[in-house]
């Protein structure tokens, strides 16, 4: 097989759970320490490869470490152990419209947000019309963003992000935005990305979506990797385990 | 080195963030950018009224320019000070204020404080341009000194950036920093010869003589304040229209280099942890 798009090797991430967190100078001086904490491992020894050109799903319940893994991939967090190697330009869609300034116009915000996501000015110039067109807000592009409806806001943010045109796109459940026709448009765009040989990593609770779109999937539980492989097999095993867990609860309750 | 390359790649981002700060600030105001002149003008009127009209403070005439206008003499020190204070205040808030951005997207974090410096610098340039025009009207010959002036302005910007980087990092750990610094800045301002001439300090120090039987005078300690030298240099260039004292210039240079070196070291050691700490 060719070089993987993303290769995650023995990644661990620790958070500190503060029983007492002294973010004021007074307490730091009086106690002579800034905190009392316990370690909590959000990710433990996770390793897998994401093949280039594939659509890859990451599933697991709340608190399983999905979002932490995602933030590590996006370089927002840095793993305490292990390493992540990526081949190609990576863009993460953790939130749409990050850094929008409400008083500035849609046009100014496209440039601002685009550069936050790592695009150069010339690149945005070239893609500007496509971005506005995709978001379907031509008439309002010179209005301040604070006058936008939440739908328009999210569409514009999503449209910018998707036009970054990365080799690897990481998406965190943002597909739940917009109305049905916009969602269809997004799915179509993902299809197009895939056809171009781009890698998409999708993090979601929505098993049906992962099932439909992804070829491979990884299942995380309490910070550990449980299974990685064909999407269908992973999801099948995840469903089974959820079912047994549910019956456990019923029995004990 | 890698950091520098990354910073170069994100210069578009730096420009856009700076523009966001500049454009967003005075949106929907009638006076717009003119508001940035309001603060220094109000300060100028108040200080001139109190210190020149009531207290009869008289700074030396400009030498060789021959100027004798308290308000302009004041502004030559006040505008650089206001810039420093703006950079520090906005720089401190830049990391905590953009927490949502830092927690969602990766980019070199240093562009946030740098954008604050850029926005404050833009206002300062505007103010200094107005001051230069005013000085020219009353007869100062400032034009030939503009290149040196720009150089010293860059030095002050570098000095201010270093301080802002350290304090912005500290503010993530201790939110007290922001409030603490507001008070410190006030003290610092009165320890700098902005609204009174340094000659008054010299007389007071000479009257007192050496401290605790040593030859160290109050003035010696006073001059440890880098801003004393910066303000001196700005006055020599703008108000006196002559070459700045080489010792003053050297002191400014040394402080700037030290400040930015410490600032960069502190910031780069902590920048990976920022997303978690916020």
UniProtKB/TrEMBL annotation, chain B:
Membrane topology: Multi-pass membrane protein
Subcellular location: Cell inner membrane; Cell membrane
GO cellular component: ATP-binding cassette (ABC) transporter complex
Domain ABC transmembrane type-2: 31-270
Any one of the GO BP annotations: response to antibiotic
UniProt keyword Protease present: no
This protein's UniProt keywords: Antibiotic resistance, Cell inner membrane, Cell membrane, Membrane, Transmembrane, Transmembrane helix, Transport
Predominant location category: membrane
Molecular function as annotated in GO: ABC-type transporter activity
Family of this protein: Belongs to the ABC-2 integral membrane protein family.
The protein's name: Transport permease protein
Transmembrane segments: 34-57, 69-89, 110-139, 145-167, 179-198, 247-267
Organism annotation: Terrimesophilobacter mesophilus
């Amino acid at each position: 097989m060719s070089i993987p798009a993303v290769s995650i090797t023995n990644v661990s991430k620790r958070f500190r759970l503060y029983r007492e967190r002294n973010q004021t100078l007074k307490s730091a001086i009086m106690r002579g320490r800034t905190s009392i904490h316990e370690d909590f491992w959000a990710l433990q020894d996770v390793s897998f490869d994401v093949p280039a050109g594939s659509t890859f799903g990451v599933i697991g319940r709340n608190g399983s470490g999905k979002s932490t893994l995602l933030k590590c991939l996006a370089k927002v967090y840095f793993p305490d152990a292990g390493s992540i190697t990526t081949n190609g330009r990576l863009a993460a869609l953790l939130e749409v419209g990050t850094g929008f300034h409400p008083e500035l116009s849609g046009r100014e915000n496209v440039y601002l947000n685009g550069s936050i996501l790592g695009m150069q000015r010339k690149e945005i110039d070239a893609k500007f019309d496509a971005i506005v067109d995709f978001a379907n807000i031509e008439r309002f592009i010179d209005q301040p963003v604070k006058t936008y409806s939440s739908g328009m806001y999210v569409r514009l943010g999503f449209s910018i992000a998707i036009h970054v045109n990365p080799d690897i796109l990481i998406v965190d459940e943002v597909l739940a935005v917009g109305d049905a026709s916009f969602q269809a448009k997004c799915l179509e765009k993902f299809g197009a990305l895939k056809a171009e040989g781009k890698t998409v990593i999708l993090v979601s609770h929505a098993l049906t979506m992962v099932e439909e779109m992804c070829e491979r999937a990884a299942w995380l539980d309490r910070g550990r990797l449980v299974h990685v492989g064909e999407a269908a097999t992973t999801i099948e095993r995840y469903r089974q385990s959820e079912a047994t867990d549910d019956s456990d609860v019923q029995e004990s309750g | 080195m890698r950091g520098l390359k990354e910073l170069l790649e994100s210069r578009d981002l730096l420009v856009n963030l700076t523009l966001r700060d500049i454009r967003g600030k005075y949106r929907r105001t009638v006076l717009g950018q003119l508001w940035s002149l309001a603060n220094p003008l109000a300060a100028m009127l108040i200080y001139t009224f109190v210190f020149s009209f009531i207290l009869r403070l008289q700074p030396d005439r400009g030498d060789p320019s021959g100027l004798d206008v308290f308000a302009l003499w004041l502004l030559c020190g006040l505008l650089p000070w206001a810039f420093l204070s703006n950079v520090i205040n906005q720089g401190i808030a830049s990391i905590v204020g953009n927490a949502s951005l830092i927690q969602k997207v990766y980019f070199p974090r240093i562009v946030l404080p740098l954008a604050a410096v850029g926005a404050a610098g833009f206002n300062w340039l505007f103010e200094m341009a107005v001051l230069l025009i005013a000085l020219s009207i009353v007869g100062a010959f400032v034009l030939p000194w503009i290149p040196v002036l720009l150089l010293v302005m860059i030095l002050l910007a570098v000095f201010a950036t270093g301080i802002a980087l350290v304090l912005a990092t500290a503010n993530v750990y201790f939110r007290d920093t922001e409030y603490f610094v507001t008070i410190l800045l006030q003290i610092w301002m009165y320890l700098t010869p902005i609204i009174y001439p340094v000659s008054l300090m010299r007389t007071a120090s000479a009257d007192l003589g050496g401290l605790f039987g040593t030859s160290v005078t109050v003035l010696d300690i006073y001059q440890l304040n880098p801003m004393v030298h910066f303000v001196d240099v700005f006055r020599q260039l703008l108000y006196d229209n002559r070459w700045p004292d080489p010792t003053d210039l050297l002191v400014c240079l040394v402080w700037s280099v030290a400040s930015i070196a410490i600032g960069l070291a502190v910031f780069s050691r902590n920048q990976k942890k920022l997303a978690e700490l916020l």
